Amino acid sequence: MYAQLVDTGSTHLRSLAELSPQERAFQERIDAGIKIEAKDWMPEAYRKTLIRQISQHAHSEIVGQLPEGNWVTRAPSLKRKSILLAKIQDEAGHGLYLYSAAETLGVSRDQLLDALHSGKAKYSSIFNYPTLNWADMGAIGWLVDGSAIINQIPLCRCSYGPYARAMVRVCKEEAFHSRQGFDIMMSLCKGTPEQKAMAQDALNRWWWPALMMFGPSDAESVNSVQSSAWRIKLFSNDELRQRMVDQTVPQIEYLGLTVPDPDLTFNAETGHYEFGAIDWSEFQQVLKGNGPCNRDRLRTRVKAYEDGAWFRDALVAHADKAEARQASAPQAA
Fold first, then answer.
1. What average pLDDT does the chain have?
2. What angle do CA 221, 225, 227 make, to 5 degrees?
3. How many CB atoms lie within 10 A of CB 57?
């Protein structure tokens, strides 16, 4: 979800008989539920897939601070301001956990950030939409972070140990984010008619992008099949999207809001909600960099990185001086 359309580099899923002895032993470990650790041997395609997925996830956490950041000064109360600040701080921490997990695969953080800033690496499409009013803070926490939990809880059981362990704390904090968002929406829905209308408007604008977050159907995708075999991906995009709809529609009804989908129906036989067609052309346009806020988000992220260059340089200089003093201390004695 936060890692959309990750390419494994595979053209087809090979059987155990087609694998080399080393690859077969690796796959058997995964099939047995044994975690792969940073120093273990792994196929190069597995390593590259993890780097793409974890770094895209990390980029999404970092860029995901931006839609909310400009509402810190406009939060309706000091309490709301402090909660939003805590949430944004959490997202920064998630990015750091994930960059650290990616670094265990032999890639540097500078390389990862260079790929993001050049536009080579992607982040989740959801963060290229504008936040027009305070109700959007509720919609993001409720829909976006709620969907993140659905996607990320299975990742706590993925095959790569550092990624799985990082996700445990991330998921606990995302649960707080989701509750924070729902609380904002509930407060608006219990308020004036104008406030409830704000909540409905935010739901209308974020509902379909939230469904697109999980990515297109991967039933025919070799990349998804390979990622599933490696247990990097435990559920299909469609399975996760269905969970999100089934979980969220009753919450929408509880709030007294209307699902912005005239085709939505409940199938009593399957126990699932059936929803309308998603406009995947919009999703593809956003991924290509043509979303409402793509350029603004990336420009803001690059500026923040460049503005902090002096501080990073100072930290390196201080560390170099400390190392030099430590090296010369025994000689002086």
1. 92
2. 115
3. 30
